[in-house]
């Protein structure tokens, strides 16, 4: 049975930005039973607006009879700092003021989040992570953790992600934040500040999560005489409204900033030197139609981690393929976990 709990860190938590939090909370779930030698831990780092209930958004991989089965594994997933699903974020009460943080919430990086996760790991008395898995921003966090604590992780699964946020990714995120900032309510200190702007931001994001082929297939018009009210337009509106019902603009703004600062090479010489520190047996997975995290990003990661395997998921869904192509992902993961990796099999980059 999947169980949700809250871990509280009571001391001041120094952040990479020089700012701090006066303590924090992490909402997390566990699923399955920790075995006697604590060697069956699977730790999941979630994507941007996901939550700690991994079966909600990666149910094709996690659950009874799936590649990550709670009958065999002890599965842990913590909601990231800055989010709004139980962990400390901009809508949380600042214990120093008794009021929500809102615009005063400090700047976070993936390194801050990983340090918070590590405190939770110590609280759970987990000495090693058998499989650390994450996709998209969760993949960024998983990789940062494997670099900063190389002895901790036995196997790393890095999905549709990168070692350093690209100018392309930053540009998409900044465009989304600009949409939020254009909302006249954004300056207010209310839970729903910037919400209409976030709807537009989500519509912008979808253009990077999918691609030309995906929209052409799913939103194509059957009525050749139509001059307004197109399916693709309604779809963008729907997705914005859908996110607004479950998320807030403050968390969205801060989490995209967190992605932008991702760089495993910061203060470590270079990205290549940082990746060389990873000791985990690593599986790097890319999606061939991903325009947000293209295959060149995963090839770089696989090339510079000493014991790595690179695999490609074929999909028409773009970046979202990492959440949808369960059959391919399960086959790739089962091969890797059964210790049949095809080492150093990235596709050569053509210049």
From TrEMBL:
Main location per the UniProt record: cytoplasm
Enzyme Commission identifier(s): 2.3.1.31
Domain AB hydrolase-1: 41-325
Subcellular compartments: Cytoplasm
Function: Transfers an acetyl group from acetyl-CoA to L-homoserine, forming acetyl-L-homoserine.
NCBIfam families in the cross-refs: homoserO_Ac_trn, PRK00175.1
Protein name (database record): Homoserine O-acetyltransferase
The organism of origin for this protein: Rufibacter quisquiliarum
């Amino acid at each position: 049975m999947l169980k949700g709990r809250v871990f509280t860190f009571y001391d001041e938590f120094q952040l990479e930005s020089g700012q701090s939090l006066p303590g924090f909370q992490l909402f997390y779930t566990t699923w399955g039973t920790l075995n006697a030698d604590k060697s069956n831990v699977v730790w999941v780092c979630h994507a941007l607006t996901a939550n700690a209930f991994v079966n909600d958004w990666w149910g094709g991989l996690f659950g009874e009879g799936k590649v990550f089965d709670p009958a065999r594994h002890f599965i842990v997933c913590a909601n990231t700092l800055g989010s709004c699903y139980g962990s400390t974020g901009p809508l949380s009460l600042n214990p120093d003021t008794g009021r929500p943080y809102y615009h005063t919430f400090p700047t976070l990086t993936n390194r801050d989040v990983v340090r918070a996760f590590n405190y939770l790991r110590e609280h759970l008395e987990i000495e090693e992570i058998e499989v650390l898995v994450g996709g998209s921003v969760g993949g960024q966090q998983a990789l940062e953790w494997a670099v900063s604590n190389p002895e901790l992780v036995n196997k790393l699964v890095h999905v549709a992600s990168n070692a350093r946020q690209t100018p392309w990714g930053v540009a998409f995120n900044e465009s989304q934040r600009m949409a939020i900032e254009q909302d006249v309510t954004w300056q207010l200190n209310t839970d729903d500040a910037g919400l209409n702007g976030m709807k537009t931001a989500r519509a912008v994001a979808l253009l990077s999560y999918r691609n030309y082929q995906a929209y052409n297939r799913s939103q194509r018009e059957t009525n050749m005489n139509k001059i307004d009210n197109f399916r693709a337009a309604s779809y963008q509106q729907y997705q914005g409204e859908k996110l607004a019902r479950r998320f807030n603009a403050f968390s969205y703004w801060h989490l995209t900033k967190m992605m932008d600062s991702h760089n495993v090479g910061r203060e470590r010489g270079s990205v290549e030197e940082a990746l060389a520190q990873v000791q985990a047996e690593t599986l790097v997975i890319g999606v061939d139609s991903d325009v947000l995290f293209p295959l060149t990003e995963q090839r770089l990661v696989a090339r510079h981690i000493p014991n790595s395997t690179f695999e490609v998921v074929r999909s028409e869904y773009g970046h979202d393929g990492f959440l949808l192509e369960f059959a391919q992902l399960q086959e790739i993961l089962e091969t890797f976990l059964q210790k049949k990796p095809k080492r150093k099999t990235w596709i050569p980059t053509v210049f």
